[in-house]
């Protein structure tokens, strides 16, 4: 795709593409964790109420602590920061509040549809059952949708229930997801440490979901390479790949005699590209966790643009807004600055995401129409 001149957005001023504020554009968020999307001020307030020790003495400093602690270069160290957010997410009231604020923050960022993923099994220390936790989150989502609507911003948010790869409750979580399929839950996920905990450990749960025709998006290709993605597709029947950035390891760059550069596809990469299997790329998070270390340490080294130019179905996501101190607007702005994308490129990313949602086809088509209309304006 040809590149056109784009104004370079600034994190200190309104991020722009051309003369259009990126925040004003309709967006779709596919990969956004509830326990990574809290406001630092909310964590600070709730932790004080619960006497949870804090590493900072004010909300701003706490936000800086999350970002710095999550930027150590490995997924394991990135995940260590979640002990603090999880500590304040063990009651129905807190879960409802956090989910409501989560939706409000998405709406303020121009998101018109989002899928929030989280692991109910990590929210039972205060005595909640997993089903009670799911209902508390759903209550908060609906409150957030109503508040956004009153403020003039229509938004819909669905839940994706996550099971932890290192635990043994995936079948229980899978059945819970199916039980709530008419009450806000649209998908299932596996998250947590990727190395040493393959998708195949959860074959029973994933077979159950396949039998129920229930959509699956699995974390893969983040801390491990192409074999993890292969496992997600074959064992997990995944319809989307959470991150999936390391699919680029199945591509080989070849210089020809006339100094042209060509790319040779491995079988897996060609399958993912040709079948248009969506990749839930999260640029800032990928840099923090070291998922892109094989290519470099800056955004310009991220294989996002390579995958996009080669025709992969790329989508742009935040992963964990608190840990990455980011928003979808900021992620898109950084891509515009780095790769000189224009309005057409940003629209394509949103259309990819809209088509990849776990909504019924009629609602996906409505979402695509809303995006097209919004970008045309």
From TrEMBL:
Stored Pfam families: A_deaminase
- Cited InterPro entries: A_deaminase_dom, Ado/ade_deaminase, Metal_Hydrolase
Give the EC number(s) under which this enzyme is classified: 3.5.4.4
Name the UniProt key words of this record, in alphabetical order.
Answer: Hydrolase, Metal-binding, Zinc
> Does the keyword section mention Hydrolase?
yes
GO terms assigned for molecular function: hydrolase activity
Domain Adenosine deaminase: from-to ranges: 26-372
Q: Which domain of life is it from?
A: Bacteria
Swiss-Prot/TrEMBL cofactor(s): Zn(2+)
Which NCBIfam families would you find in this protein's record?
Answer: aden_deam (TIGR01430), PRK09358.1-2 (NF006847)
Q: Which family does it belong to?
A: Belongs to the metallo-dependent hydrolases superfamily. Adenosine and AMP deaminases family.
Name recorded for this polypeptide: adenosine deaminase
Q: What is the lineage of its organism?
A: Bacteria, Bacillati, Actinomycetota, Actinomycetes, Micrococcales
